[in-house]
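Quick one:
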Amino acid sequence: MTSTTHSTDENGNGTENGNGNGNGNQCADRYEIDTDPDRIDIALVHHWLSTDAFWALGRSRDLVERSMRGSLNFGVYGPDGAQVAYARVVTDRATFAWLCDVYVDPAHRGRGLGVRLATAVRDHLAPYELKRTLLATMDAHELYEKVGFVPVPNPEMLMTLSAER
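Output:
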């Protein structure tokens, strides 16, 4: 799988480098967003999700790993190369995508990384010309609106099948 690297400045402006090796340009004021699954710190992502993300509290390591294997994963890396954020997209790369498990380390919040990450996801998915990309959020509507997400026009058309029946 070819990885794509997105380098962004503090305003979310950046470039995409589909060089396949996951290496991107970095400097002290830049973060790198990469889709190389080998760079994802699985233990760290599991810790974030299972202990601090209200939608995934208690999620097992096995479940995190299985969800990653079936997804397009985005890691955000600081100037020192350490992972500072994560998101994944479940998609068929033809008609549909679901953006989920978006998480920014608390020490790196307030720097616009959520917008940068959502922008990188949007831009990465654009060539697929998907009919629909969905996400669910309790408290970040304004963040996602900045990159083009809007409320579901006809929510009465959507249904869910929950394991908690």
